[in-house]
Automatic annotation (TrEMBL):
Name assigned to this protein: Inward rectifier K+ channel family transporter
A single GO molecular function term of this UniProt record: inward rectifier potassium channel activity
Organism of derivation: Micromonas pusilla (Picoplanktonic green alga)
CDD domains per UniProt: GST_N_family
Keyword line: Ion channel, Ion transport, Membrane, Potassium, Potassium transport, Transmembrane, Transmembrane helix, Transport, Voltage-gated channel
Length: 748
């Protein structure tokens, strides 16, 4: 179209005027030249060379073209009747073979009729005296060449017949030529849509992915991709119809070159929420057999100066759950980046499971039916509870629900390391919040984690019980649990476990509080110190005897009943200082890891506490000690007179653990990896449950929470109910390699 071409020229000139200069070419021309040259290389190198591969791609492309022209609906087409318009439509719709057969059939029929008329009319001269073929040659010369041939008319009737046949030949040749030219001018899409749509997560958010491939690798402009959800519905009056709901796309492509992937973010409460049932396994493909997703791709092809179109419909059986598309970029023998269209339909399972931050507890599992696959309930909390927070009301606005339970963290690391797929649920276990009713149905104690095996209705509570049960049933879990080093024993594990619990107990008492006085103060702090073995039965017995003697002295000095006498805990034997003991526990833990992970002449068996690969002990130690590697937590402990040193071997071990692909997803937050929410849950309990007033220090505690939220920004929830991320959770992929550069150019 002239106006369209002029518009494109204006766009090109406008872009050139704003671009930087690259040699003698402008920036726009340089980019365009690079794209054209790269596209041609991709078309040559990316297309498979083997005959079978090429045939498969051609068949896929042909099938895509058929789908764009009606697909299965063509078989239900009623007869179009015999007319010029019907023939014209069929010729343009069908393949070139069909067009050739129609042209050959029309000419053959015309020649046959004209030859019969020649035999009836007669009056022609044949210099070859071949009466058998003369009528056919008479008709062929007039119809095909539109002029006289070797067989000439000699009478008025035969001359009139010859002129009529020439006129018929003009009409036939014009129409047939029009068919051919129109088919050449009518562009075929040569676009492929992947056989399967992917149901996956991006930064914990559920998405639908559909991949598009342009086999020609030319740049298509003004691309429009639409995803439409099709569902059969029935009205109360009995009418059945197909409802069409348009699904929004995130960052839809405006141009198509080689490959592109479009994505729709699934909103559980939105029109695409039905896909969550399919993604989580709550419903099977058979139960959602009426579910259809239609993908339509249209784009302007500047070579044809027309629009091209492709369409595909996905049923519930065509969705790959928990999968993403395989990379189609490759490098040929010359080192050039090419597109491997053979892999355009390939999908790969997502090995990392990340949970999206939500407003509150997830919808609970279906208790009335056995689990379709392994189901795990994780404990959730918030990094900030807003103005309703009893402990820190000025900390900030309300944040989203994230996984916070350290026991769940260890279990998630084990499952991800073993490659086990599971359906997650997050239950709000925050202090002061109402726990969901369905959590009590899973575990009467309302504790996490809780798991249910595939095909079972009974729930298993506790991380240790879940791990042991899975190890008995699954070889992959059993292999991870069995990872052990001969030089590492349970004693080392107990020393490492003491560090975090002892610190939590230590900050709940003042700097001068001794062990005996701490026992007399009581509370959760003493329980923690008892769990790590700092408070022994002998100490408790000594304190009990001292308290009894003090009570007797008070009774002797006063006539008041014993129930009204208050024992002064300040006037007792302090015993060993609590914080000094805690600091010793922390130092022993890090010294133990430093020795166990010290390299020994390139021995890779000392990379982790369990050997060459991480095991259960690594997961537990890494989760328990994770906060110690945060500068803000180190400052917080220093304000409570607890100091420690982390050696280089220990830091290297921690770096190897955090570099695991599923480390961040272990907390499952999908954004802040749950660090801020987990820290808030712990600090709030320490402040509210402490029996020693003023400890831990409230100002230091609030500063710790603010610093953690700055280092690990959580997901905030607006008053409108819309969830928003403070920062993007997806890392940028940078690099100057030819493959990365070509990927950017080919996919623009």
């Amino acid at each position: 179209h002239p106006s369209l071409r002029s518009s494109l020229r204006r766009d090109s000139s406008g872009a050139s005027s704003l671009s930087l200069k690259t040699g003698s070419l402008s920036g726009w021309d340089a980019i365009r030249a690079s794209l054209v040259s790269q596209n041609s290389r991709s078309l040559r190198g990316g297309l498979p060379r083997k005959h079978k591969s090429s045939k498969r791609l051609r068949e896929s492309s042909t099938k895509a073209v058929k789908d764009a022209r009606g697909g299965a609906a063509v078989t239900s087409r009623t007869s179009l009747g015999f007319s010029a318009s019907a023939i014209y439509f069929l010729v343009l719709e069908r393949t070139w073979w069909y067009c050739a057969l129609v042209i050959a059939g029309v000419f053959a029929l015309s020649l046959g009729v004209c030859a019969l008329l020649c035999m009836v009319v007669g009056g022609f001269h044949d210099p070859l005296d071949s009466t058998a073929t003369a009528p056919l040659r008479f008709a062929a010369s007039h119809v095909l060449t539109m002029s006289f041939g070797t067989v000439t008319p000699v009478t008025d009737a035969s001359y009139a017949l010859a002129v009529t046949q020439c006129f018929l030949g003009v009409l036939l040749n014009v129409f047939m030529f029009t068919f051919v030219i129109t088919k050449f001018q009518r562009p075929l899409a040569h676009m492929l849509l992947a056989d399967s749509a992917c149901l996956c997560t991006r930064a914990g958010e559920p998405f639908i992915l559909v991949r598009i491939g342009n086999l020609r690798c030319n740049t298509l402009h003004r691309a429009e991709v639409t995803l439409t959800l099709l569902r059969r519905k029935r009205t109360p009056e009995g009418e059945t119809f197909v409802s069409r709901t348009a699904l929004s796309l995130q960052e839809p492509p405006r141009t198509l070159t080689a490959v592109a992937t479009v994505a729709h973010k699934i909103i559980p409460q939105g029109p695409g929420g039905v896909f969550m049932d399919l993604a989580t396994g709550r419903k099977t493909s058979e139960e959602l057999k009426d579910l259809l997703l239609q993908c339509i791709v249209t784009a302007y092809d500047p070579i044809y100066d027309a629009e091209v179109c492709a369409v595909k419909v996905y049923s519930a059986h065509n969705f790959a759950r928990g999968c993403v598309y395989a990379d189609v970029m490759n490098v040929d023998e010359k080192g050039q980046a090419v597109v491997d269209f053979e892999r355009i339909h390939d999908v790969l399972p997502q090995k990392v499971k990340i949970f999206p931050p939500l407003k509150d507890s997830w919808e609970g599992p279906d208790m009335n039916r056995p689990a379709r696959m392994l189901e795990v309930v994780f404990g959730g909390g918030r990094a900030c509870h807003g103005s309703k927070d009893d402990a820190f009301p000025t900390l900030g606005p309300l944040t989203a629900m994230e996984q916070v339970c350290s026991y769940c963290y260890k279990l998630a690391l084990l499952l991800n390391e073993a490659g086990m797929d599971y359906i997650p649920y997050i239950a709000n276990i925050s202090l002061g919040d109402d726990k969901p009713d369905w959590l009590e149905a899973c575990n009467p104690k309302k504790e996490t984690p809780v798991a249910r095996l595939q095909g079972k209705t009974e729930w298993i509570a506790g991380s240790d019980a879940i791990m042991s049960t899975l190890a008995e049933m699954d070889e992959r879990v059993r292999a991870v649990v069995a990872r052990r080093r001969e030089d590492v024993n349970e004693g080392h594990e107990q020393v490492i476990k003491k560090a975090y619990m002892s610190v939590l107990g230590g900050v709940m008492f003042g700097p001068t509080v001794g062990l005996k006085r701490a026992v007399k103060i009581g509370g959760v702090g003493v329980m923690l110190l008892k769990m790590v073995g700092l408070v022994t039965p002998d100490i408790e017995k000594e304190v009990e005897e001292e308290m009894k003697k003090q009570m007797e002295r008070k009774e002797a000095e006063s006539e008041a009943p014993s129930d009204d006498i208050v024992v002064d805990v300040d006037n007792v034997d302090e015993g060993l200082n609590v914080r000094s003991l805690v600091q010793t526990c922390v130092s022993e833990a890090f010294d133990t890891i430093e020795r166990l992970t010290a390299p020994s002449h390139g021995d890779e068996g000392r990379m982790f506490l369990c050997g060459k690969a991480p095991g259960v002990m690594d997961f537990g130690a890494a989760v328990d000690l994770a906060n110690f590697f945060q500068p803000s937590f180190e400052v917080f402990l220093a304000k409570h007179d607890i100091r420690f040193r982390i050696g280089p071997n220990c830091r290297a071990w921690h770096a190897r653990m955090t570099s695991l692909p599923h480390w961040r997803s272990g907390m499952g937050a999908g954004h802040s990896d749950g660090t801020a929410a987990a820290m808030k849950t712990i600090v709030t309990k320490l402040v509210l449950w402490s029996k020693d007033p003023g400890y831990p220090e409230r100002a230091a505690s609030e500063e710790l929470l603010r610093s953690t939220m700055r280092d690990f920004p959580p997901a905030y929830i607006e008053d409108t109910g819309k969830e928003e991320m403070r920062s993007d959770d997806m890392d940028s992929v940078n690099g100057g390699t030819s493959l990365n550069s070509a990927t950017a150019k080919l996919c623009v």
